[in-house]
Design goal:
Strands 1-2-3-6-5-4 form a six-stranded antiparallel beta barrel. The protein starts with 8 loop residues before the first strand and ends with a helix. It has one domain: Thrombin, subunit H (Beta Barrel), CATH 2.40.10. It is globular. The longest helix is centred in the C-terminal third of the chain and has 26 residues. It has three helices and six strands. The protein is α+β, with helices and mostly antiparallel strands. Helix content is 35%, strand content 29%.
């Protein structure tokens, strides 16, 4: 993919689909991303309680039941303001939601509002600007992007050494 328009971003292969008629749920986005952050913690200062472990399992099972089949994974670059993915079939200026499953630990399809700003037919990529106008959802999304950005930097450094 060509140069991405911002620095804080991460590359991934995630299940995703563009949905022109989808509506987003800001409260769901904020809460899901906060819970996903807890699921992504690999080393904990203290062990989780048996009750918390059972609740975590129930959340995972519920997410799998609610989303038995996720869309096909695609290459995506997620930034704070923009997103670029491999795909097509959209028009510049089109508004809708990019529905993505942001975490393997808790498989759930989140609809995030965006507007298509560029299409590169030669590279088969679409670039959109996020339209996250809810403060709590925006904050949770920014924490998610920063966390994934830091993880990618750490993995790149480990791969080089």
């Amino acid at each position: 993919m060509s140069a991405f328009p911002e620095g804080v971003c991460f590359d991934a292969i995630l299940p995703l689909v563009w949905q022109p008629d989808a509506r987003w749920q800001p409260f769901e986005v904020a809460r899901y991303l906060d819970v996903l952050a807890d699921f992504d913690v690999t080393e904990r200062a203290e062990p989780i309680s048996a009750e918390q472990g059972r609740l975590d399992l129930q959340l995972i099972w519920l997410a799998r039941l609610a989303n038995p089949i996720l869309p096909a994974p695609a290459g995506v670059t997620v930034g704070l303001e923009f997103v670029r993915w491999q795909g097509g079939g959209v028009s510049i200026g089109e508004r809708g939601c990019l529905s993505i499953a942001p975490g393997e630990a808790l498989p759930h399809l989140l609809a995030l509002p965006a507007e298509i700003v560029a299409i590169d037919a030669a590279m088969a990529t679409v670039t959109a600007r996020w339209q996250l106008d809810h403060p709590a959802a925006r904050d949770a999304f920014e924490r998610y992007v920063f966390r994934r950005h830091r993880e990618q930097i750490r993995h790149d450094r480990e791969a080089k050494s």
